[in-house]
Amino acid sequence: MGGFAVLLAAILFVIALPLGMPESLAQLGALQLVAAVVASVVVLRLDGGRSLPAIGLPRVGAARGLAAGMLLGVTIVMPAVAIAVGVGGLRYGADAGTWIEYAATGFWTGLVLLIVAAGEEIAVRGYPLRVLVERWGPWPALAVTSAIFSVLHGANPHVGGVALLNILLAGVLLGLVCLKTGDLWWATGVHTGWNLATGFLADRPVSGIRLVDAPLIEVSAGGAGLWTGGEFGLEGGLSATLALGLAILIVARTAVVPSRLLERPPAPVRERG
């Protein structure tokens, strides 16, 4: 795992050195995705000659996993929005634009967010999660990767204690989805769906970053920041805490697809003599 982290950082440095640090989210996401894939391929080859399906990226079923995960991610955000409106006082109004502009903006926003989510998922819940599961079992692996996921967002704008807690909970949820399905496509879809629903459908910042100004809808009143998350977006408020907690309980008690990753690998048997 240490070797993977060093290799990932080295690839990012080598690519960014001549080109400079990307300014747009799309360019940064593409850089992270390329670095994560290359680092995974190299480390997997060195670790038993394995390939990307070993970390939950099979070619068969990729589109189905992404689509199902995105639907789940969007669904999880809906209770958070309802709580932010009902309890936190978040208010929406009409804005200028057409349905064509709305659809086009949503499509390109989703595409960018898919690239960003794929890079983060492969980097955190790809090889690192699998190797920790093999070494320590699923629950310690979930704890470590979720903590890493939260720390990586610690420098985001407007971040606070509730935000870091929610990102930790999001890491647990995404890790559970990955382990339950044995498929990183599902987790990438959930990650994308969550960000798309919060950043575009709910027209709020995502992890402190304002991604897009969605046509047709406008936030007319910010409400209580403790519940709505304020400038950090829904992830910074208690509405997301409740929604993520509920989602974790449901996913933890649901057998999506039987996965051997939920079982600690048996200890090797040594022969006498």
How would you describe what is shown here?
With 273 residues, the protein is mainly α. Helix content is 64%, strand content 3%. The chain has helices at residues 2-19, 25-46, 62-86, 99-125, 127-136, 138-152, 161-181, 184-201, 225-228, 238-252, and strands at 91-94, 217-221. Strands 1-2 form a two-stranded antiparallel sheet. The longest helix has 27 residues, at 99-125. The chain is globular, with a radius of gyration of 19 Å. The protein starts with a helix and ends in a 21-residue tail after the last helix. Mean pLDDT is 90; it is low at 257-273.
Q: In brief, what are we looking at here?
A:
This protein is mainly α.
| Percent in helix | 55-70%
End-to-end CA span: 34 Å
Low-confidence stretches: 257-273
- Quaternary structure annotation: single chain
Main sheet: strand order:
1-2
- The secondary structure category is mainly alpha
Q: Compute the number of strand runs.
A: 2
Shape: globular
User: Percent of residues in beta strands?
Assistant: under 5%
Give the mean pLDDT. 90
Given the structure, what is the number of helices? Answer: 10
Largest sheet: 2 strands, antiparallel
What order do the SSEs take from the amino end to the carboxyl end, as H and E? Answer: HHHEHHHHHEHH
Instruction: Evaluate the radius of gyration.
Output: 19 Å
